[in-house]
Amino acid sequence: MALKSTIFKAHLQVADIDHGYYADHALTLARHPSETDERMMVRLVALAIHAHELQDTCGGDGTLAFGAGLSDPEDPDVSLTDFTGRKRIWIEVGQPEDKPLLKACSKADAVFVYAFGSAADVWWRGIENKLTRLDKLQVWRLPTEVAPALAAMAERSMQLQATVQEGVLTLSSTQGSVPIEPLRWK
């Protein structure tokens, strides 16, 4: 019998000072049985980083949502879709292969990867040359200590505040706060 996803609910308040975006998001995250709390929380952070794109890219008329994630490798971890159904932003977390990223670049206006964990540097050295021609792709590295700190904040029901100022996202809850300053690799 297959294991079912675990459902997490998050109320995320985003205050993106850099982009002048302030909004509340009621989110449901389905964590696949093989997904870690670290990966799930990095997906949530990626959504918070790009929340301002709802206004900036889609003029408020779009959908920023989690994809099927590990359940469907053809679906992004997070995406922004405009009212016409066009994928404006495709976001992957972790260390994806080059072929799915190539496919994502053909389906979306912009593709972002948020690499995390101790193996991210090794992954990047092995894949960097294969990704140089992908103009729509940006690759970002989260500091190694961020993912475990985010995992400690994971609860089935979460009240979170994400503040973006000067390129740093600070995610806060009753569990504490985690400053996140992604490093751009590509």
From TrEMBL:
InterPro entries: Restrct_endonuc-II-like, YaeQ, YaeQ_sf. Transmembrane segments: none annotated. Pfam families: YaeQ. PANTHER family: SUCROSE PHOSPHORYLASE. This is Uncharacterized protein YaeQ.
